[in-house]
Amino acid sequence: MEYYSTNGQAPVADLKKAVVKGLAEDKGLYMPQTIKTLPKAFFDEIHNLSFQDIAYNVASAFFGEDVDLDALQDIVYDTLSFDCPVVKVTDNIYSLELFHGPTLAFKDVGARFMARLLRYFTQNTRKTKSHPINVLVATSGDTGSAVANGFLGVDGIHVYVLYPKGKVSPIQECQFTTLGKNITAIEVDGVFDDCQALVKSAFMDEELNQHMKLTSANSINVARFLPQAFYYFNAYAQMKRQGLDRPLVVCVPSGNFGNICAGLFAKRMGLPIERFIAANNANSVFYEYLQTGKYNPRPSIQTIANAMDVGAPSNFARVYDLYNKDYEAICQDISGATYSDAQIADTMREVYQKTGYVCDPHGACGYRALAEGLRADEMGVFLETAHPAKFKTTVDDILRTDIEIPAKLQAFMKGTKQSVPMTKEFDDFKAYLMQQP
Ligand SMILES: *Cc1c(COP(=O)(O)O)cnc(C)c1O
Q1: Terminal CA-CA length for the chain
Q2: Is 107 annotated in the active site?
Q3: Ligand 1 site: residues with CB under 6 angstroms?
Q4: What is the pLDDT of residues 93-138, one digit of tens each?
Q5: Can you give the pTM of this predicted structure?
Q6: How far is residue 239's CA from residue 84's CA, in Å, rounded to a whole number?
Q7: Do 160 and 25 belong together in one domain?
Q8: What is the CATH number of the domain that holds 293?
């Protein structure tokens, strides 16, 4: 399969190049040249298949031309070593819990898949073991933990996680600073933007790129975002298994729009999703686009659903391209919602009091958009993108609870923190990397 750039100025790439490079030369995002629809027989039988087998069918449609099928099956099975169950919250609203992976958030799926696919491509072409690939990732919290754990122990790949000193929560920090092995945490004396600037400068520095092979594990990478389609298919299968057959509305708490974009791909492949809702926090750039037809990106503002604090969603380019830049067509499939912190907190309290279900601040946006927007003949699934314990302080404050920290998370917290202190000056970061083998 060939991948073209959404900016249309770069040559098409094969899957390997798209995965290793991440971004096209013209700074556009890679899109697959064709999106295959899956056969009717697959949808007729989907409720009888396991999550892994459903995902393997989907993965074959995307990657089957470029990856040996046995290897692809191993990659998919190994990625999905945990479940993504659909849980009933109210009569017609269900939560798709994407937080049962190693770092308790949905990014685990894409990060694990990408790590395994990258290993596949490098092992197949690398003649000696002496040149590892180095993944650089800047994080404000969740991405670093998913990427670090996804790549942990993966042969031939070293990961450097850059994070702002004192700006990530202790729970998040321990998820990438306690791992050791092929994961190095770099504690930058600065803010998230400084971390991102260091990573960008590193990719552009010729001398550094001659010294070591660098790549990014950013959410714009096709190997991170496409596998997120797997759990949309699996959610549908679970609904069908329960005999639920009303028109399905899927609501996605959105920041960079990678997650919802994967859902739109799933629909394009034939998955019977009636429509989507993109739920935003106060960062309402996409919501405004739907209201006005004008896309007006701007700096983000801080909210309690901080993984969605994005003012210029990078995957907007993919959504726009998928619909041939047709505003009306986008509005047919997607509607929007935007909520203030106060509304998010109210929703968390309301759901908890009415049903006992604990939403995290991101999932709460998803629930509320369905509660407000679902028609009587429809049923809704919102993506619960993280375990509430990842935001324990916020959740306990709002709900007056003392929610339990899952064993997986506690295990991280027991580990010893190891990190490399770093200034925000590129020369220092470069000097450090030049010393690495
Ligand atoms: C990353 C993240 C999101 C936003 O997902 P996008 O793909 O960037 O839209 C939502 N919730 C949580 C918990 C996240 O970590």
Answers
A1: 34
A2: yes
A3: 105, 107, 142, 219, 253-259, 307-308, 362, 385-386
A4: 999 999 999 999 999 999 999 999 999 998 866 555 557 899 999 9
A5: 0.94
A6: 13
A7: yes
A8: 3.40.50.1100
